[in-house]
TrEMBL record:
<comment type="similarity">
    <text>Belongs to the HMG-CoA lyase family.</text>
</comment>
<dbReference type="Pfam" id="PF00682">
    <property type="entry name" value="HMGL-like"/>
</dbReference>
<keyword id="KW-0456">Lyase</keyword>
<keyword id="KW-0479">Metal-binding</keyword>
<dbReference type="GO" id="GO:0006552">
    <property type="term" value="P:L-leucine catabolic process"/>
</dbReference>
<dbReference type="GO" id="GO:0046951">
    <property type="term" value="P:ketone body biosynthetic process"/>
</dbReference>
<dbReference type="InterPro" id="IPR000138">
    <property type="entry name" value="HMG_CoA_lyase_AS"/>
</dbReference>
<dbReference type="InterPro" id="IPR013785">
    <property type="entry name" value="Aldolase_TIM"/>
</dbReference>
<feature type="domain" description="Pyruvate carboxyltransferase">
    <location>
        <begin position="7"/>
        <end position="274"/>
    </location>
</feature>
<dbReference type="InterPro" id="IPR043594">
    <property type="entry name" value="HMGL"/>
</dbReference>
<dbReference type="GO" id="GO:0004419">
    <property type="term" value="F:hydroxymethylglutaryl-CoA lyase activity"/>
</dbReference>
<protein>
    <recommendedName>
        <fullName>hydroxymethylglutaryl-CoA lyase</fullName>
        <ecNumber>4.1.3.4</ecNumber>
    </recommendedName>
</protein>
<dbReference type="InterPro" id="IPR000891">
    <property type="entry name" value="PYR_CT"/>
</dbReference>
<comment type="pathway">
    <text>Metabolic intermediate metabolism; (S)-3-hydroxy-3-methylglutaryl-CoA degradation; acetoacetate from (S)-3-hydroxy-3-methylglutaryl-CoA: step 1/1.</text>
</comment>
<dbReference type="GO" id="GO:0046872">
    <property type="term" value="F:metal ion binding"/>
</dbReference>
Length: 302
C-alpha cells in the first residue's frame, strides 16, 4: 500500500465544533482550547469565524480570541470568512489564512445562503482578489459532496466542477465535506478519482462526519487514494444538524489513533490532545465524543 508518510490534520473544533453549542462559551475558554491544541502539536487550527453575530452568536468573540491566543511559530491559525465583510474583519485581526465554502448541491446552497452555487462562487471573486493583494492564503470547502439532506445523492462530477472553480479561483487547497455523513469507502474512492482529474490530489482534503459511523473507514479509503490532509474536531465537537442526536465531526483523537497505528507521522501528542478535549468537554458539561479518549481515560481511572 502506498499510504502517505505524513498527514496534516486541520483542527476545526474551535470553530466548526463550538459554533452550534447553545450555551455561552467565554473567550477565555476558547483561547485555552486553541492554546491547548497548539501545545499538543496541531499545526493548523481553525480558530473562529468572522460572520454576523445574529447568524452565528457563538463566533461573536473571534477577533478577541485571535488577539489573546499564544501564536506558536509554524502553526496556522485560520478563520472562516464567508464574505468580503468577514474577510476585512479577519484582516484587521491579523489573520494570515482564511477559508471560504460552497456547496455541491443546489438545494443546499439555496437553503443555507439563499443563492445558487454559481452565485456563491461569484461572491468570492473580490475576496480572492483582496486575499492575493494582502498575501492571505485561502482554503476552500465544498459541502455535501457525498449526499445532501434535500437532494439526496450528489454526482461526483458536480463536486469536481465546484472544486475546480475554487481551485482556479486561487484556493490552494480544497476540502471535500461529507456534511451529513452518508458516504462510504467505495464512494469516497470514486469521488477522489473523479475530482482528482481536475484538482491535484495533494491539494485536496477530506472532511468526514461520523453520522453513520463511517468516518474512519472513509479516511482510510482516502489515504489509499493518496489524500494527506483531513479535517477533524477535538473530542468530536460539533453535532450534525440534519440528523437529530447523531454525531457530527470525526474526533481528532480517533483519527490520530488510526494514523499512529498505520505508522503515519503527524507530530501530534495523543495524551495532550486527549487532555485538551476533556477540558473543553468539562467546560461544556458534555460527554467526550472521542471513543479513543473515552477508552484511554477510563483505562487511566478504572
Amino acid at each position: 500500500m502506498n499510504l502517505p508518510k505524513q498527514v496534516r490534520l486541520v483542527e476545526v473544533g474551535p470553530r466548526d465544533g463550538l459554533q452550534n453549542e447553545q450555551q455561552p462559551i467565554s473567550v477565555a475558554d476558547k483561547v485555552r482550547l486553541v492554546d491547548d491544541l497548539s501545545a499538543a502539536g496541531l499545526s493548523y487550527i481553525e480558530v473562529g469565524s468572522f460572520v454576523a453575530p445574529k447568524w452565528v452568536p457563538q463566533m461573536a468573540g473571534s477577533a478577541e480570541v485571535f488577539a489573546r491566543i499564544q501564536q506558536r511559530p509554524g502553526v496556522t491559525y485560520a478563520a472562516l470568512t464567508p464574505n468580503m465583510k468577514g474577510f476585512e474583519a479577519a484582516l484587521e485581526s491579523g489573520v494570515k489564512e482564511v477559508a471560504v465554502f460552497a456547496a455541491a448541491s443546489e438545494a443546499f446552497s439555496q437553503k443555507n445562503i439563499n443563492c445558487s452555487i454559481a452565485e456563491s462562487l461569484q461572491r468570492f471573486v473580490p475576496l480572492m482578489e483582496a486575499a492575493q493583494q494582502h498575501g492571505v492564503r485561502v482554503r476552500g470547502y465544498v459541502s455535501c459532496v457525498l449526499g445532501c439532506p434535500y437532494d439526496g445523492e450528489v454526482a461526483p462530477e458536480q463536486v469536481a466542477w465546484v472544486a475546480k472553480e475554487l481551485y482556479a479561483m486561487g484556493c490552494y487547497e480544497v476540502s471535500l465535506g461529507d456534511t451529513i455523513g452518508t458516504g462510504s469507502a467505495g464512494k469516497v474512492r470514486h469521488l477522489f478519482n473523479v475530482v482528482g482529474r481536475d484538482v491535484p490530489r495533494h491539494q485536496l482534503a477530506g472532511h468526514f462526519h461520523d453520522t453513520y459511523g463511517q468516518a474512519l473507514a472513509n479516511i482510510y479509503a482516502s489515504l489509499l487514494e493518496g489524500i494527506g490532509v483531513f479535517d477533524s474536531s477535538v473530542a468530536g465537537l460539533g453535532g450534525c444538524p440534519y440528523a437529530k442526536g447523531a454525531t457530527g465531526n470525526v474526533a481528532t483523537e480517533d483519527v490520530l489513533y488510526l494514523l499512529n497505528g498505520l505508522g503515519i507521522e503527524t507530530a501530534i501528542d495523543l495524551d495532550k490532545l486527549i487532555a485538551a478535549g476533556q477540558r473543553i468537554c468539562t467546560v461544556l458539561g458534555k460527554d467526550n465524543g472521542s471513543r479513543v479518549a473515552r477508552a484511554l481515560l477510563q483505562g487511566a481511572t478504572g
